[in-house]
Amino acid sequence: RPRFRAATSLDICTGQPELGIWNFQLHVTIHVLYCRTTLEWTVQTKPFIRVPARQSSTDAPKRNSMLDALDLTYNFRGCGWDWSQGLYVPPETHPTSSRLAFAISALISGLKHSFIFGVAHCAIQSFSPDTFGSVNGGTIFDYSLPPHLRYLRSTIITTLCTLFVYSVFQANYELTAPLGVLLFKQHPDQWPPSFDSPWRATSVREFWSRRWHQRFRRLFIFLGKYPLSLLFGRAGALAVDPSSEMWRSLLPFGMMGVGMVIERAVAGNKTGGWIGWIWTMCWLVLWGNMIVDGWARTGVLGGSTILDSVTPVRQPIERLVRMFDEYLHAC
Prior knowledge:
single chain, about 60% helix, globular
């Protein structure tokens, strides 16, 4: 308990408010690990077992107890372990003929997504540099605009935030994969894709169960099964500013379940096609606006990233966003 409090009170941004997102990321990581090692593993009655490598693999990783322990702790999806049964694993997008080919492909893709998240973050902040584009925070809804333009603007910001989050996850994962494959001699099979083209989802259920990343799937299943989720809620609140109106994030995620109930009641298991795609995107964007607005009010979107100053298209992006914002206000 004292170690947990110490870890979640650690300030790694050296007192610089614009780097506060680093503290947020650290706290979220600590909370996830805390729930896994202290809560979930406490009630585990059977040992976790490694799933043998595929029979056709001629380059299977050698057993190493230390690497197995690290993999068990930080492998949130459980790929390669018996407790990941039922997990949907997206089809591989990188060559697996050799470790080197896989590492090079993952590295190139990781650099590409790093560029994308730098551009998206720059565009988000350019919409309002003095409010949510800074650590001061502010709403993404511009009440000086008529409703239809106000929500068009907020929806564009929400879409950019979704692209930012997606690219951050992809970049972090794909830039780490070459280290695991080349340095620790892991097999490429241990680094399957995180996402499966989430923009192609034709139902809310498909989006969350297959298209979006499944890193916290095991944790959410556990917290839904045991009343210890109350402890997680208490711990999770420590990573968020108490004045941030947490309901702006919690309510929309709860409404995802409502969306699944609605689509099942209306279409059963046949939700799909272009109608299903329109329904899914509208539902996600509707509640996504509220989630992003909650983040914006805390100043999270105004944080600084390592790529902010080196993004080569920063100035053109800022000018383009300013021109678009001026156009909306002139309408």
